[in-house]
Amino acid sequence: MSLNTIKDQKEGVAVEIGGVKYLHTHDQKYSRSIYLEFAGQTVGDLKTEEPYHGDFPYNGMTVRFREGKLDGGVDEEGEGQPAVDADTHIEWWRDGKLHRDPEWGIGEDENTDLPAVTGDGGRWKEFWRDGVLLGIESTRLDIIEYPYGKPKAAGA
After folding, report:
1. pLDDT digits (tens, 9 = 90+) for 86-112
2. Do residues 100 and 128 make contact, with C-beta atoms less than 8 angstroms apart?
3. β-pair partners for 125
């Protein structure tokens, strides 16, 4: 329901429905992705110039690369996994782009859209497809209105 609710809104306007705020936007300035600057880039070891491949622990999270690009890949059981995995922040990347496929639901024509970025303990969700931000859902209403903090009064 989240992504459909977002798409139903006028682009650039945040709408509150039942205590949840939805913002239909393609503007990446609202994103809380930790590694957005790596989108589409190949990242590797500076000494060997080899692209990163595998799981790397970094600042209390696991960051996954495939052939130098952020990509969660799949685990031993064939299940997809996030490229950035921390206790309160998760990011799904595929081939260097923020992306998360929908999961098929009960009916064959129904699917459940899943966020590519989940932060703030699940109170912040961003929906991305092939590197394009489709919208944001959050119960933190102030964050969507003021993504970089509330404006300060003059002289404060």
Report:
1. 999 999 999 999 999 877 554 455 556
2. yes
3. 118, 137
Phi-psi region of 95 (alpha: psi -120 to 50; beta: other; left: phi over 0): left
- Whole-number Å distance between alpha carbons of 7 and 61: 32
- Is 88 inside a domain boundary? yes
Chain centroid, CA 45 distance in Å? 25
- State the residue range of the domain holding 59: 2-145
Taking each continuous run of H as one helix and of E as one strand, the counts in the chain are: 2, 14
8 A C-beta contact, residue 90 and residue 98: no
Q: Look at 5-14, 58-67, 74-83 and tell me which has the smallest mean pLDDT.
A: 5-14
**Residue 136 within a domain:** yes
pTM over 0.85: no
